[in-house]
Amino acid sequence: MTTTEIADTRERLRAAGLRATDQRMAVLTALETHPHADAAEVFAAVLPGLPDTSVQAVYGVLAALTDAGLVRRIEPAGSPARYELRVGDNHHHIVCTRCGAIGDVDCAVGSAPCLTPAGTSGFTVTTAEVTYWGLCPDCAAAPLT
Amino acid sequence: MTTTEIADTRERLRAAGLRATDQRMAVLTALETHPHADAAEVFAAVLPGLPDTSVQAVYGVLAALTDAGLVRRIEPAGSPARYELRVGDNHHHIVCTRCGAIGDVDCAVGSAPCLTPAGTSGFTVTTAEVTYWGLCPDCAAAPLT
DNA sequence: GCGGTATTTTGAATGATTCAAGAGAGCAGA
DNA sequence: TCTGCTCTCTTGAATCATTCAAAATACCGC
């Protein structure tokens, strides 16, 4: 990470009203390298640079960043929560049913159809979230065991 | 539950290759009364009729029924797993962000658009799952606290 | 540089779910 | 109807992801 990138990351945190701590910088950097990482993976990625970091700090940082809108949290069924930097657009995810790998998917037809379902049982819909399930390229190519 | 319904439930289990135990009958009955119930709610519903039932049995029964295709398991983010009897159709769910209530939603435009996203990063898509988030009628009517 | 407050560290607890071993019950065949 | 095999349940404990709480620390405006 260059000096400029460091300053930039710091600025993003400050703009969100958060203090620019080493841990937060490290978590943001880790998520750039590891998209869709879970808390344990983020922790593992942060540790080499900041050996005294605690797991709880990672959870706290991720929660703060998520609240501030800098990070998006996704929770596929059967998987621990995962985090990504791509926020503000309405993209969805595809999860490999065999290995759990996650990929980004842009909505096929824009956001409109997914957001206007018929018969919502009286509920007021604010957001729609789509999870696709399938096989990642690696698992599709691998032999059945 | 009438005698006919009991026999019918028993037959459904047998047809799925499962033994018709009291616990499984009770869980199926509980899910008829409590759609979208989680394991704890199913357990609570089963207990009056079968006081010796264990929580683990409920988990085991729900897993067996899910494997057999008699029950569908849904896991909204931030909520324990929930179960429903409605299987075989491609309906989705809407979750109340305030109280966690769940409603059924039929796909607005059939299954086609949701199942054919653009740019799947090389993944092979098999199923699509939509979760809508919003407010249930009760919470929408209730004052903000 | 200092002080006040947001964050992190340390340590422990929680909730949902699963694992394992032995007791018990359902069902196919006699 | 009775028997035995096997699947299922009970009992007891463990796991994983995550959160709570109190004290130590570090960031940032002045």
Describe the protein's architecture and organization.
With 145 residues, chain A is an alpha+beta fold. Helix content of chain A is 39%, strand content 21%. Chain A has six helices and six strands, in the order ααβααββββαβα. Chain A has helices at 3-15, 22-33, 39-46, 55-68, 112-115, 137-141, and strands at 37-38, 72-74, 82-84, 91-96, 102-106, 124-135. Chain A has a three-stranded antiparallel beta sheet. The longest helix of chain A has 14 residues, at 55-68. Chain A starts with a helix and ends with a helix. The relative contact order of chain A is 0.12. The interface between A and B is large, with 42 and 42 residues. β6 of chain A pairs antiparallel with β6 of chain B, so a sheet runs across the interface. Chain B binds a DNA duplex (30 and 30 nucleotides) through residues 14, 18-24, 38-40, 52-57, 59-61, 63-64, 80-81.
- Rg of chain A (CA only): 18 Å
SS strand fraction of chain A: 15-25%
Number of strands of chain A: 6
Major interchain interface with per-chain residue totals: A-B, 42 and 42 residues
CATH topology of the largest domain in chain A: Arc Repressor Mutant, subunit A
Please sum up the structure shown:
The first copy, chain A, is α+β, with helices and mostly antiparallel strands. Helices cover 39% and strands 21% of the residues of chain A. The model of chain A has no long low-confidence stretch (mean pLDDT 90).
